[in-house]
Structures are given as structure tokens and as C-alpha cells.
Write a structure and sequence with these properties.
The complex is a heterodimer of chains A (about 120) and B (about 110). Chain A has about 120 residues and is an all-beta fold. Chain A is about 0% helix and about 55% strand. Chain A has no helices and eleven strands. In chain A, strands 2, 4, 5, 6, 9, 10 and 11 form a seven-stranded mixed beta sheet that branches. In chain A, strand 9 and strand 10 form a beta hairpin. Chain B is an all-beta fold. Chain B is about 0% helix and about 60% strand. Chain B is built from no helices and eleven strands. Classes of the chains: A mainly beta (about 120), B mainly beta (about 110). Chains A and B meet through strand 5, strand 9 and strand 10 of A and strand 5, strand 9 and strand 10 of B.
């Protein structure tokens, strides 16, 4: 099946710094990518949907200025957590879907810890 | 917004036993999907069942869909320790003009050797 990678898999940063997480589709062109946040033992919470070359659509309650999403190419989307705080510590997962595809492929997730 | 709900939230069984997880949803759908997530990892698509299907099999997995009750079940037969994971159901929804998945809360399955 299609492969989606995320980098880094784990990151620890200090409060106030910014962290960038990359999501790449390795063997298909991802016209749409999704970013999720997942708390321990909880379900996935959709943060935003991004289409290549256009602005991301954020879910209600998600701060677009804090969680910057860039889907600059058909194989790469980035999520930047700006001025991170300990409450931003979470597991962030991306998923990707190609044009005309129903299937969605998930990255392995990024564990962010803000100290 | 629509949200699937799985029950039980946690299930602990012995190897070899069957595990049944249920999912309910709130609006009309054209398909329902089940995913598996190992601890601290991404999600893996297991099976998709369309609204005109009542049952579907894939290996040791059996999924049923009852659109009249807006519910689905995932049965794992002859469970193995490696089946230990969280299982989520998801149904299609929309985020603006984009199709998205609406996620259930998940069932945490522990299969004890």
C-alpha cells in the first residue's frame, strides 16, 4: 500500500520555541493532507485539512496562527507549532489522500513533548 | 458534528478468544471503515464496508453493518497477542469542500498470552 512518512518521530522542545513536523507521501501524489492531534488513550481530533497550493481549512477551535500548515507540494505538508507550550504536548498524525482516491494513508505519528 | 462511538472502550481477552467491538454513528453514510492503531503509532486501514453491504470478511476479521440501527461491529476471531491495539471506526464527513473522516472514540483491545 501507499506510504506516508512523518519526521521527526519524536521531538522535545522548550516552551516558547517553534517546532516543524513534516508529512511526506512517498509513492503517490497527495492532493489532500489531514493533520490530527491525539491525546493519550483518546480518539483522533482533526485539526485541519490542506490541499496542495491552497490555504488549509482549520477545524473549529484550532488556532491557525499557532498551528501553521503549509502544503507546498503534492508530496509534502508541514505543520509548525509556533511558540509551543506544555499543553501542546501531544501525538500528531498526518494522513494523505491522492486525487480520486477513497483510501487514506496515515503517517506513523510524531510525539511532541514541550518542556 | 457526527461522531462514531465504540463500545466497549476497553476489552481484555485471552489468546484464542474472539473479540467483538461495536461502533455507532449518527448520520447516513455511504461507507464505514475500521482502523487499527498500535500504541504510539499511526493508523492502519483494516476494512471498509459499504452501506449496501451487511457483512464483510478479511482474514480473521468480520465486519457487519446495520444501517437501520446505524451501527457496525468488528469481530476478530482466534485472537493473538499481536492483535493488542486500539481499534477505531470512521465514517465519511466533510470539512468545507473536502471529504474527511469522522472518528469514533476507539476500543482498546488487550490480548493476553
Amino acid at each position: 500500500g501507499a506510504v506516508v512518512s512523518q519526521h521527526p518521530s519524536r521531538v522535545i522542545c522548550k516552551s516558547g520555541t517553534s517546532v516543524k513536523i513534516e508529512c511526506r507521501s512517498l509513492d503517490f501524489q497527495a492532493t489532500t493532507m489531514f493533520w490530527y492531534r491525539q491525546f493519550p488513550k483518546k480518539s483522533l481530533m482533526l485539526m485541519a485539512t490542506s490541499n496542495e497550493g491552497s490555504k488549509a481549512t482549520y477545524e473549529q477551535g484550532v488556532e491557525k496562527d499557532k498551528f501553521l500548515i503549509n502544503h507546498a507540494s503534492l508530496t509534502l505538508s508541514t505543520l509548525t507549532v509556533t511558540s509551543a507550550h506544555p499543553e501542546d504536548s501531544s501525538f500528531y498524525i498526518c494522513s494523505a489522500r491522492g486525487a480520486g482516491q477513497g483510501a487514506m494513508y496515515f503517517g506513523p505519528g510524531t510525539r511532541l513533548t514541550v518542556t | 458534528s457526527q461522531q462514531g462511538e465504540e463500545d466497549p472502550q476497553a476489552l481484555s481477552i485471552q489468546e484464542g478468544e474472539n473479540a467483538t467491538m461495536n461502533c455507532s454513528y449518527k448520520t447516513s453514510i455511504n461507507n464505514l471503515q475500521w482502523y487499527r492503531q498500535n500504541s504510539g503509532r499511526g493508523l492502519v486501514h483494516l476494512i471498509l464496508i459499504r452501506s449496501n453491504e451487511r457483512e464483510k470478511h478479511s482474514g480473521r476479521l468480520r465486519v457487519t453493518l446495520d444501517t437501520s440501527k446505524k451501527s457496525s461491529s468488528l469481530l476478530i476471531t482466534a485472537s493473538r497477542a499481536a492483535d493488542t491495539a486500539s481499534y477505531f471506526c470512521a465514517t465519511p464527513g466533510f470539512a468545507g469542500n473536502n471529504r474527511k473522516l469522522i472518528w469514533g472514540l476507539g476500543t482498546s483491545l488487550a490480548v493476553n498470552p
